[in-house]
């Protein structure tokens, strides 16, 4: 199995063996920026260590019997110069970190989006949309923040940790002891801190995703929520999810509150001062050296206090990276089969002992029938018989569990998936329309279609007249899922979209159910024109379409109960007679 159904083109191939490798593979695409960050961070820390030594020199100059103000002036000049250079290096470090963070966020979004488009319907059917959106937005943003300010501060803090250890021995060789002990205690505490922090930040990200998924689901089904007066229950559900997210955040806060390096910093300053005073009393260092050493120890304050924030940010970013990479690398059951059959489809379809189900529950069992090229076949059966599921197996939206489906005598598994789907058009019961113009929705499968071609398809689908009734005509922007349109209007736009793609196989999954009787004859004629010269599968309960079909397949409890034309089935198939009588009683 592959990680995606379609190998959607992405300009960069990342290392997906682990979250750390994945982040580094993205970051090391910008080596010159990383070099700029490291140089800037080192220069910033090194030049931060200059003022303490110069302050010591100035202090000694002022303690002379005759204070040397020229030394004081030169000290001031060198401090100003060093800090100006330091500010430039710090700007370069921060600027580089911001660039790499923003680029990382951009590239991560692009890679994740390309991966999601390539996943199968099985993947999308099992994943809560809200959780995916939380990962695609909030978790991706956390990766940006992990780079800047997170890792930016970590790198800077690392160099600041070195400076007192390296510079203190220039005052007296033994003064490296206390800074070194602080370094050992700092990194030991940091190791245990990160070990505790990791699961907490993972829990925060996971519970945020769950809260977002619940909210998204409630809003997506807001019509049902309001129609059944379930607002209080949904509010209670959201509050439970919010409480879990809050508790995870508090857990993380408790761990951060136990960060020990601030305590170690106080002890370091205390013992460092005592050590320096002992050396001063022994005459090993002068008073300026004591002052320089104490100011130098203050450099530990930057890594101590920024680490509390920086490492939490890095941990949150790595938790986000794990969640994003888990989405990207989740394997699907389908593959693109780039080397597969890609010739024009003639339209012969054969179901050969096909079995399929969802989550262990069988929907279709040992289904077998044939469709000749150019023929129209009506699929009928009671609700839950597996009619819609059957249609989704033809273009490999889902893959069969057992048996096989053949197109022109070739197993659908052996077809190039993109070529196969481009030649099969499915219009489903639940019509999805994008928040775009009417013209863009009709031309979705043929983005290069001309306006004349779009209008011709709309006229064939009996949609042109109502489209021209809109103020902006074909440039009218419709709401998501076409909520601003009636059911019949949505289905006619879907028909127009299918007609424009000129498929070799057309599958209509009860797609005319919302069309009123006044336009049914027009739509019927449009479907008949569309069916000319191509194989058509009609999943329908309209008797006019059932009678018109060349062949009828009757499904009952996931099995083929009968196959034949209308007259034959009325004579030999009791299940068909019952279905037909029920539809007739409904006025179809």
Description:
By secondary structure, the chain is an alpha/beta fold. Helices cover 62% and strands 10% of the residues. The protein contains 22 helices and ten strands. It has helices spanning 19-27, 31-48, 50-63, 69-118, 121-126, 129-167, 177-220, 222-227, 231-257, 261-281, 287-297, 301-329, 387-394, 417-422, 438-442, 451-460, 464-468, 487-501, 517-531, 543-548, 566-572, 574-585, and strands at 349-358, 361-371, 376-381, 402-407, 410-411, 424-427, 505-509, 535-539, 551-556, 559-564. A six-stranded mixed β-sheet has the order 6-7-8-3-9-10, with helices on both faces. A four-stranded antiparallel β-sheet has the order 2-1-4-5, covered by helices on one side. Strand 7, helix 19 (517-531) and strand 8 form a beta-alpha-beta unit. Helix 1 (19-27) crosses helix 12 (301-329) and helix 6 runs antiparallel to helix 12. The model has no long low-confidence stretch (mean pLDDT 85).
Topology:
Layout: H1 19-27, H2 31-48, H3 50-63, H4 69-118, H5 121-126, H6 129-167, H7 177-220, H8 222-227, H9 231-257, H10 261-281, H11 287-297, H12 301-329, E1 349-358, E2 361-371, E3 376-381, H13 387-394, E4 402-407, E5 410-411, H14 417-422, E6 424-427, H15 438-442, H16 451-460, H17 464-468, H18 487-501, E7 505-509, H19 517-531, E8 535-539, H20 543-548, E9 551-556, E10 559-564, H21 566-572, H22 574-585
Parallel strand pairs: 3-8, 3-9, 6-7, 7-8
Antiparallel strand pairs: 1-2, 1-4, 4-5, 9-10
Helix pairs in contact: 1-12, 2-4, 2-6, 3-4, 3-11, 4-6, 4-12, 6-7, 6-12, 7-9, 7-10, 7-12, 10-11, 16-18, 21-22
